DNA sequence: CGTTATCGACTACATGTGTAATCGAATACG
DNA sequence: CGTATTCGATTACACATGTAGTCGATAACG
């Protein structure tokens, strides 16, 4: 089992999931928009992810190329599962009900989910 | 806007959402099963929640009776929304797809969600 | 070849979090 | 009435996290 990914680390992972391998500078550049971190910050986060064995680094001359060891789908599955377990007793329908109450479901969403469910029953 | 509720604090909140008002000792007793915290730990968490104005305390003789200031539904809505935004671009259908892939949807779940959606369209 | 930019490694430091221990006041028990 | 228990408040302390700065080595530039 891999260790916890913090919020800031998650931002780094998103960059690596979008494309990899990348150097620290690449990652920093991709995150510059949203987060405005210094390159040092990005390097620290990469080191921590490396220590947690959530990414791997391959040496390329003087620098490293980083790549994810954990797939985005695995991460997303874990996080979704945790939320469901913590807040909804592991059941999805209360979540759907909750989101409906928040008006976070568009007609398109509803149609899409219905199609998905129909697929599942088939 | 209220502040962040940590994992440990969330456990305390669940006790208070289930019943309130409660004394620190009551809360500790209810959490004894799952977490096995010392009473001091529970008191610290209550103090922190109080400082964050997530709960309120009403004095009752020498001790306090604690009650939530933030409803469970509000908390749950916030957490669900954050997860959806962070991992699914704010859309629900990819989450459903994800959970389906994990086999976390029983036939009952599917039926229930379909009923919910039908309701929403009406 | 000398200077500057850059690399990874190490260090820093405030704040949040988990998990209590201690303390002085008050109360309950005997 | 004296002692043990309990209360809330204050303090403690290690580890996680966000956010860098510094340092010694090296590479790129002029």
The CATH topology of chain A turns out to be Arc Repressor Mutant, subunit A
CATH class of chain A: Mainly Alpha
The largest sheet of chain A, given as strand count, sense and whether it forms a barrel, is: 2 strands, antiparallel
The strands making up the biggest β-sheet of chain A line up spatially as 1-2
Which term fits the overall shape of chain A? elongated
Per DSSP E runs of 2 or more residues, the count of β-strands of chain A stands at 2
Q: Write down the secondary-structure element order of chain A.
A: HHHEEHHH
Structure description:
The structure is a homodimer of 122-residue chains. By secondary structure, chain A is mainly alpha-helical. Chain A has a single domain (1-91), classed as Arc Repressor Mutant, subunit A. Helix content of chain A is 64%, strand content 10%. Chain A contains 6 helices and 2 strands. Chain A has helices at 7-18, 24-35, 39-51, 72-88, 93-101, 107-121, and strands at residues 55-60, 63-68. In chain A, strands 1-2 form a two-stranded antiparallel sheet. In chain A, strand 1 (55-60) and strand 2 form a beta hairpin. Chain A is elongated and about 55 Å long. The two termini of chain A are 34 Å apart. The structure holds a DNA duplex (30 and 30 nucleotides).
């Amino acid at each position: 089992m891999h260790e916890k990914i913090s919020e800031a680390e998650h931002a780094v992972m998103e960059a690596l999931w979008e494309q990899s391998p990348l150097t620290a500078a690449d990652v920093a550049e991709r995150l510059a928009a949203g987060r405005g971190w210094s390159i040092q910050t990005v390097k620290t986060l990469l080191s921590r992810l490396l220590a947690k064995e959530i990414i791997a680094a391959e040496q390329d001359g003087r620098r490293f190329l980083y790549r994810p060891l954990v797939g985005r789908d695995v991460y997303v599955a874990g996080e979704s599962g945790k939320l469901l377990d913590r807040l909804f007793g592991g059941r999805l329908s209360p979540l759907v009900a909750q989101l409906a109450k928040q008006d976070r479901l568009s007609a398109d969403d509803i149609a899409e989910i219905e199609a998905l469910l129909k697929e599942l029953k088939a």
